[in-house]
Amino acid sequence: MRARPFGPDRLNVPVIGFGTWHLELTDRNAAIEAIYRAVEAGMTHIDTAELYGGGEVENLLGFALEGIRERVFLASKVLPEHASFEGVLNACERSLTRLRTNYIDLYMLHWAGDHPLEDTIRAFETLVDSGQVRMWGVSNFDEELMREVVRIAPGRCACNQVLYHLRERNIEHGVIPFCVENDIAVVGYSPFGSGRFPAETAPGYDVLADVARARGATPHQVALAFLTRLDGTFTIPKAARLDHVWENARAGDLKLAPEELRRLDEAFPRGPRRPGIAML
Ligand code: NAP
User: Fold this and answer.
1) How many angstroms is it from 145 CA to the middle of ligand 1?
2) Which atom belonging to ligand 1 lies closest to the Cα atom of 77?
3) CA separation (Å) from 50 to 92, 95, 113, 202?
4) Is residue 69 in a domain?
5) Residue 261 falls within a domain, yes or no?
6) CATH code of residue 163
7) What's the CA gap between 78 and 82, in Å, rounded?
8) Cβ contacts of residue 219 below 8 Å, gap of 6+?
9) Structural domain count, the chain
10) Which residues contact 87 (CB under 8 A, 6 or more apart)?
11) Beta strands 11-14; 3-6: pairing state
12) What is the model's pLDDT at position 265?
């Protein structure tokens, strides 16, 4: 599994992590097994949120990670409506209880809301000072909002988690360059468009399949390798099926050649720059 420095602390984090949205809908034992296998396979960056299953997924992780917590880079998110100073502290306390741990490695604001960013960031820093959070970040922030974060707290934000898949590459225009320049990790979510992609009927699929065949890989693995080709980028596919878990983890060893990247770039063009940020 390839790993690279994450955020200003430059902690080495695997390029492919494990998403957990909707994991509460999977049979409980199967979900626990999938989490355990993901960690075993090297996808030790586990992404969750207080939102997922209304706390159910954090509960599940608390159970599944018992005994292996120290091996995991655990990320969770606070909802924007809880992002006042007091709200963040209380939400984090609830997440810690559900996760059955005394620290979260990466705590993020799920998306920008009405509470002043200064208050949210002050709460994040308070949590860092108390040791309940190792580093903090944001999610679904466009370049303008990222500039605001850096203005408020230079050198402090560890990541921006954003939508990124072969059909949604707008962040390559501004968000990724800005983040890389400022030592902020870019964690791409929904690398398979929440399961809708890459579809065999989609334009460009033949190129994906061709590259995959030549490398003895699968189209999904090639997609993950493409999405983690740039410095500072990470991806967090969700998989409940154990064969998917294994397949995704193995993509962490796949490095595409310049000619393969060129063909994929052409088959899945990033398109002209659009303002704002795409969200699921
Ligand atoms: P995704 O990772 O794009 O796709 C998940 C779907 O793809 C599942 O149906 C899964 O099936 C299937 N799949 C996984 N690996 C596969 C493989 N190798 N071959 C074929 N199918 C495969 O979806 P996502 O859950 O939307 O995104 C990933 C994670 O990003 C989330 O779980 C969450 O942690 C995070 N996220 C964050 C935000 C945000 O606002 N910050 C928003 C959305 C998502 P099985 O489950 O049956 O294996």
Assistant:
1) 25
2) 41
3) 9, 6, 16, 34
4) yes
5) no
6) 3.20.20.100
7) 7
8) 198, 205, 208, 209, 212
9) 1
10) 78, 81, 115, 123
11) antiparallel
12) 97
Q: How far is the CA of 15 from the centre of ligand 1 (A)?
A: 15
pLDDT along the chain (280 residues), means of 10: 97 98 97 98 98 98 97 98 98 98 98 98 98 98 98 98 97 98 98 89 92 97 98 98 98 98 97 93
Q: What is the domain range of residue 229?
A: 3-196+222-254
- Helix 56-64 vs helix 85-99: angle between axes, to the nearest 10 degrees? 40
Provide CB contacts within 8 A for 173, sequence distance 6+. 270, 273
Instruction: Supply the residue whose CA is at minimum distance from atom 9 of ligand 1.
Output: 195
Q: Which two tokens stand for residue 49?
A: 């949120």
The answer to the question of residue 85 being in a domain is yes
Pick the catalytic residue from 52, 107, 164, 189. 52
Of all protein residues, the one whose alpha carbon is nearest to atom 48 of ligand 1 is 239
For residue 203, the model assigns a pLDDT of: 87
Return the pLDDT at 119.
Answer: 98
Residue 86 lies in a domain: yes
Name the strands in the sheet holding 18-19, side by side, starting at the edge strand that comes first in the sequence: 18-19, 45-47, 73-78, 104-109, 133-139, 157-163, 185-189, 233-235
Q: Indicate the helix (H) or strand (E) that contains 128.
A: helix 117-130
Q: How far is the CA of 116 from the centre of ligand 1 (A)?
A: 31
- In the residue annotation, 189 being an active-site residue is answered as no
User: What residues flank ligand 1, with Cβ below 6 Å?
Assistant: 19-21, 47, 110, 139-140, 161, 189-195, 220, 236-241, 244, 247-248, 280
